């Protein structure tokens, strides 16, 4: 899913930070910011819900993720040196997410409600992993600086907050973020196929999204409509299944 998460820092505190010279955002800054926000989300999950409550479900998620992580190390042009961390939560509002640096959180209620089998769960996890592998957080920050270069004069924490909270900046980023979602779907399916999952089974995840969403044909800001994602996945399946040796 997308990376927009509430930051714990309030805006007036960020605006009080000292000004920095104009500079491009770095991968290290993005991953450090993501690690801080992820830690806050994990703490919230411990306090308000249950973190890693079901050892069977946690083991299932980590087993599937491990096969994808192992394969991702062989993928060309993917981000290297990611410190993968995987947790599950009973938060009913959480589906799944992966922040910069490889910080994954999977919602057990979401997986149960969609009755995801292992192939469908692999598609969900592979999609989220690709956000980190393709460095989508970094690219989003770079695009934000291109759209509103005045943020180069602010600390990275201020830009990070604005990406999730500034209505004007978020509107400008919507189309960019939609494309990132399609990219994560496409590359996530390719990753999962290369890891041994059947392409036809993977696309069933998108079919279930459509089936369980009464507004499956409606786009959501930075997320394309589930029906659009399903059509794109079906087209990719046909392409992948035409290649020799592709799992079917």
Describe the sheet with the most strands: 3 strands, mixed
Count of distinct strands:
3
Q: Supply the number of structural domains.
A: 1
> What count of helical segments does DSSP give?
10
Helix-strand pattern: HHHEEEHHHHHHH
Low-confidence stretches: 1-22
Strands ordered across the widest β-sheet: 1-3-2
Radius of gyration, rounded? 18 Å
> What is the helix fraction of residues, given as a range?
55-70%
Q: Name the shape in a single word.
A: globular
Q: Distance between the terminal alpha carbons, to the nearest Å?
A: 26 Å
Strand content: 5-15%
Overall mean pLDDT: 88
Please give the oligomerization state of what you see: single chain
- Content-based structural category: mainly alpha
